[in-house]
Amino acid sequence: MRPLAEVAIERNGPVSVVDIENVPHDAVVVPISMMGAPTVGTEKLPSGREATAALRALERVLGKRATHLAPIEIGGLNSVIPIAAAAETGLPLVDGDAMGRAFPEAHMVLPSLMGVSCTPMVIVDDKGNTMVLDTVDNRWAERLARSVCVEAGCSVFTADTVLSGKQLREGLVAGTLTLAHRLGRAVRLSPEPVATARS
Amino acid sequence: MSYRLGVALPGARSAAAVLDHDGRVVVAVERETETVGGILDAVLEAARPHGIPASKIDHVMFAVTDLRALAAATGYWRGWPGRLAKVAAVRLGAATTSVPPLALWPPEMRERVVVASTCLSGGAMLDGSDYEPLDIEGMLAFARRISGTVGAVAITGVFSSVTPRHELAAAEVIREEMGASGAILLSHEYGGLGLVERENATILQAALTAPVAEEAAKLLAVVNERGLSRAEVFLARSDGTIATLDNAVTHPLSLLGATDATSVVGAAVLSGERDALVGLTKADGNVRAVCALTDSRPRMTVGHTEVAGVPTGLSVPALVPIHASVEEAIDRAKDAPGDLPLLLVGPGTRAFVNSLSPRIVGTALAGTVRVESPADAEAAAAVGAAAAPVVGEARRIVPLNSPRLEEIRTAVREAARASAMRAGADPAKVGLVWTEEKPLAYLSEPTVVMRVRAGGPPRVGWMAGKAKVAVSARQDAR
After folding, report:
1. Is B194 an 8 Å CB contact of chain A?
2. Pick the CATH number of B87-209 from 3.40.1360, 3.40.720, 3.30.750, 3.40.50
3. Is the ipTM of this complex over 0.85?
4. CA B409 → CA B23, B426, B441, distances in Å?
């Protein structure tokens, strides 16, 4: 799924990545991710307009503009989706993510432990269908979003778990985007990837 | 008594071997020649003292590497991509343009191969319903635009592996408009999930099919000239199985890496081992790569194979190249901590074994239980081709709660059997060789990708009677 980010950057220009330390306290940070089966995502590719659509819908509900995007998880597909989304929307991308790894469900993130709500959550499919969830807790957000996802063809975009700049230190694992980049470079370019990545 | 003849053409050196009907090697040769005629003459001469004339050979199996040998041996087509058909590419799935058709192709390959491309409404959902309605008007307009300018059309629909309905309907529109002026290739025939990779492979196959078929016809002529007209010709594929010449040329990319695959299969046949590591040697006596042999088959990559700079989802033998030392490659080729025998095959087998300290041979090299070069190891690629089974595969995505689950399982098994028979397996002996149901992750409804492989020995008697008449007619026409 790396081509999603590559093509988006080719079309829209490079993405700027910012350290958590450099994000203002009043920033509106929106994690954008894909939900569903990765095998479906590689077959039924996105159109490339979903991230913007999800962000605009969420902004309408929030009544304010997003200032930054952030990865919700750093494992797998969802480490490249926010890069494509940042290229598409022109917003800076925060260097960090909400779990420091990959987990299977939407509520399994650090902000959940802080008491931050996953909702309002916007779900957008490749055809342009848009839905806003407002749930009693984060488990319900996962449960309802999952059924929408399956009905929409098992691959959707979500914008949810909105954080303020001030909440990032507790809500995100810092520096994981650059860590992933460093690991990838070591594996690709170094004859001794483990030693290189450690140094 | 009938015999099988295996021929491997990996490059500057060639190998050939004759196996009897019990799979025993009767003669094996390995020579510095690139021509089909040269290696056939050498093996037939070696077989004569054993009382094996060309007329007693029922099957000839060729293994070629990236089609280059096929070309160099028989004529003007020097390597590929050289002469490629002009292709028009159609994608059915208008809302998939985050990665448009051909986006990942090197520009020079794109210009060389693809005349026109389009992305139209169509395709299927995971549950088999329409993803988008098929844009028949758009299809017709595109068909009119390309008619007369292309040698082949490649059609790729979203989830055509679930249902090929839209690919088939689109093919009908193209055929109606284009007449018989070119081949139509449908991506569901080439399998695999991953829209872009399958689309790329289908386009490449479309570009290669006509030139490879021409080369194959020349290969057949050389075989017939050597008095082997009673033998049916098969080509080895990337996974170390074989398919009839006619079937294989419609899937030219499946020939990639075939000599590596048959080398590994040949090592298994010659040593009697089912699980081992195989060191592929070069003529100078160096090991160029190590490949794991698992259950008598080469370990395969999981896809992500670039062909002429184009990403595809093809699986090829998982070769571990030598960076630092053979031991290091052995270590990386293993998928479990236990030590395995190291089998050496290929033209430099003897030179490599001689270069090792006598202490190591027959005892151990780090990571191995012993180092062995089986008899006729130089010709392992030819032995592997001659001994290979004919295998067909079918796959389908199925929700496990489908009320028709058993019916679907039966249909997939039948499709695999049919695919094996189309590839030239003996209908009397085709059996299921492997089944897999792999769940798709992150769905609320349990859904699996079902894959079934069926296979058996190559069919016999096919070249008698009418088929033989057809071959002579083809020869007369030349």
Report:
1. yes
2. 3.40.50
3. yes
4. 33, 23, 20
